[in-house]
Design a protein that fits this description.
By secondary structure, the chain is of the alpha/beta class. Helix content is 40%, strand content 16%. It has 15 helices and 13 strands. The strands form 2 sheets. A 7-stranded parallel beta sheet has the order 3-2-1-4-5-6-7, sandwiched between helices. Strands 10-9-8-11-12-13 form a 6-stranded parallel beta sheet, with helices on both faces.
Length: 387
């Protein structure tokens, strides 16, 4: 197939949705498809490198969360769309809506992903206390954007349930974003000077990293624990200040893939404290590397799906609950190492290859509907034909 992927940006490798778009594009290419990117930072021979659109007030806020908005260029994007079998959309913003209208005019089948959880918006706007706000955003996305699609990619059963609950009538495909196959357990064991706890994710309000710092401060083993927070974001200074106040040994970093894998493989425990999460590939990557996770049991997060038992869950936003789980795993080296292997095996059902197979099925379903069941109009690769 010839597939175009539209996303406001792909030039910021700290944004989870950007990483997902790039990973999907590379995976589809490896499976024999031609993929054309339409985004800020796209640099392939058949891509469209969009200019950035300035949105008063919004651009300044979004930039802190590694988000930029593309500027629509009808003629430039139309050239990229010519000859494609399907256009897949990542974000639900103005750029994507304009590209969707163009694809419809050209008679091209389209699908969309749901990656922007309304709770992400409410937390960053400091409106998480106002419960109706999220419902308003779900309704806004539905009426202004998603109602024009027949099929939506949902990265987790959790978010598919949220969409159904908020009146989305489209066919919902639950497809994990999939983790990079390079994330595997270490070939040999390791021994650290201190007990190494790690979390990967944007340093943002909804990620709730402060509860980890507070939990370590409550731990019986505080003086022998080191925390690494991997990511960038607007909460960094506040987290640094809190760690200093509570005398928690902490490091902030942002690592390239190879270094990230090495860090995960050499750590002792992974904590995912986010209150809001559509899936959390970061947690899945850690699990795939053989780390036992301890995950916030939040009703607004899909990440608890990765927990194999209650020992890997703590009460959302409760540092005392998390401290107890940290101490439990600190005291049980052999069990932690045993469960790390079990967790690594459990991650395999979320592999990128399995996700790409499911995505191909979604694309084919949409193309068949658009072409009234005639697949002869597109060039299917063997991998897609066999699904």
């Amino acid at each position: 197939m010839v597939i175009a992927i539209v996303n406001d940006l792909i030039d910021n490798k700290t944004n989870g949705s950007v990483i997902t778009a790039i990973r999907f594009a590379e995976g589809l290419k490896a499976r024999g498809h031609e993929v054309r990117m339409v985004a800020i930072g796209a640099d392939g021979p058949n891509d469209y490198n969009a200019k950035e659109r300035y949105v008063p007030l919004v651009t300044e806020v979004s930039a802190k969360n590694q988000v930029k908005f593309g500027k629509f260029d009808r003629e430039g994007i139309k050239k990229v769309f010519e000859g494609v079998d399907l256009v897949h959309f990542i974000f639900p913003f103005k750029f994507e809506k304009q590209c969707k209208m163009l694809a419809d005019e050209m008679g091209i089948p389209t699908t969309a992903a749901f990656h922007v959880q309304p709770e992400n918006i409410s937390y960053n706007a400091h409106l998480n206390w106002f419960r109706p706000f999220n419902s308003i955003i779900y309704a806004y996305f539905r009426e202004r954007y998603y109602r024009y699609f027949n099929r939506i990619h949902c990265p987790s059963a959790f978010i598919a349930g949220q969409l159904a609950e908020h009146g989305y009538k489209q066919e919902l495909y639950v497809i994990s974003n999939g983790y990079d196959p390079a994330f595997v357990p270490a070939a040999t064991g390791h021994r650290n000077e201190k007990f190494e706890i790690v979390m990967t994710g944007r340093l943002a309000p909804e990620k709730n990293q402060q509860v980890i710092i507070k939990a370590i401060a409550q731990s019986k083993y505080k003086d022998n624990i080191h925390l690494t927070l991997l990511g960038n974001g607007p909460k960094k200074k506040a987290l640094e200040k809190l760690a200093k106040k509570l005398n928690v040994d902490i490091t902030f970093n942002f690592l390239k893939k190879e270094d990230l894998i090495a860090k995960l493989q050499s750590s002792d425990l992974y904590v995912h404290a986010a209150t809001v999460e559509i899936e959390a590939i970061a947690a899945l990557e850690a699990i795939a590397c053989g780390l036992v996770p301890v995950i916030a049991d939040s009703k607004k997060s899909a990440t608890p799906q990765f927990a194999l038992d209650e020992r890997s869950l703590f009460e959302d936003n409760n540092e005392y609950s998390l401290a107890r789980k940290i101490d439990y795993w600190y005291e049980r080296d052999e069990e932690r190492l045993r469960m790390g292997k079990v967790y690594a095996e459990s991650a395999k059902k979320y592999s990128l290859e399995k996700s790409l197979e499911k995505a191909e099925r979604m694309f084919i379903d949409e193309i068949m509907d658009k072409n009234e069941g005639d697949l002869k109009k597109i060039a299917l690769v063997p991998a897609a034909q066999n699904n």
